[in-house]
Amino acid sequence: MLAAAVRLFNERGYDATSMFDIAESLGITKSSVYHHISGKEQLLQMAMDRALDGLFEAAGEVCALDLPAPERLERLVRRSVLVLAERFEYVTVLLRVRGNTEAEQHALARRRDFDAIVTDLVKQAQAEGGVRPDIEPATAARLILGMVNSLTEWYRPRSGGAEAIADALTRIAFEGLRTA
Amino acid sequence: MLAAAVRLFNERGYDATSMFDIAESLGITKSSVYHHISGKEQLLQMAMDRALDGLFEAAGEVCALDLPAPERLERLVRRSVLVLAERFEYVTVLLRVRGNTEAEQHALARRRDFDAIVTDLVKQAQAEGGVRPDIEPATAARLILGMVNSLTEWYRPRSGGAEAIADALTRIAFEGLRTA
DNA sequence: ATATTTACCGACCGAACGGCCGGTAATCAA
DNA sequence: TTGATTACCGGCCGTTCGGTCGGTAAATAT
Prior knowledge:
The structure is a homodimer of 180-residue chains.
Chain A: H1 2-12, H2 19-26, H3 30-36, H4 40-63, H5 69-86, H6 88-94, H7 102-128, H8 137-149, H9 151-154, H10 162-175
Helix pairs in contact in A: 1-6, 2-3, 4-5, 4-6, 4-7, 5-6, 5-7, 5-8, 5-10, 7-8
Chain A binds a DNA duplex (30 and 30 nucleotides) through residues 18-20, 28-32, 34-36, 39-40.
């Protein structure tokens, strides 16, 4: 049922999806939906949590590795792509919330925490050398994560392996498009 | 008035912004708003057009230049950042629409056209050499544009010049983060 | 001074929404 | 078999929304 709701949220947007729509897509009535969940917002909350938990799990594992910072950064970027692909619809929901409710604001705060982890990794990588120091760590982190998060706009789980995308993305992020 | 509406659209989302909200922020009543415009959707339409027109103007100018493809690609990426910064709130609105109405679908189609222009530029750049050929042009274009578009999520017009961001972005896109 | 246009308003409408309630039918444990 | 739990439903409620309508007052034109 969460899956059905999330699919609709992504098709038409959270606000534009009614409880009736969700019920209809499950072949039951609106009342029956309320037998299983407490309200529309709970569905949103569950979706966002599923996305955030995946991201933080990846961050925790990567940060625990005993590797040079640039290597950890690259691994976290790659892992983020894979998490996004794996929990695609949940992350898509997450990346679209605007902070209209308390639950959404809490999710935004967790996103900022994740950003801070990546920013810190960039800073470390610059200090250790191996990552160019002429770009502000926060800017670099946001641009790279922006690239990762943009997957929600066009990546479709069917369209080839996430690994290929992760390769292309990390290649651009760390080596750039230019050959000459 | 368009500016006021767009600001609210970006603060709370299009659906979550009522005509009353817009009227209130202008110090007039809802009825008065309808004296100036035909409906909520028209405001959205105008906002999206303003964003798309800027993007296509940039694309038209850059494509007309007599330069190597890699150079044109880099210039278009940079110009896109500047357009996004200049028409920040309008582009933000544009990048959030999900295609729920006919007008939104038309806007999505125009966005795809813009993507196609960038994709084509990447392809040309690969053919001429100067851009790595081991990444699918469509993938590269989407990742780079994703990076550009992510600005709507964190860039704030006050926070320093757009040129600095454009520099950082094109540097990452074309040369990558790595130094070693 | 008069006529016309422009900007605005209060009151209202129908539709859609999230959510609630009382009741029913199936499932399952004893 | 019976009692309780689970899943489900139709119908309803209060609210909010986008949008309309008839009318008023100020500005502008003649």
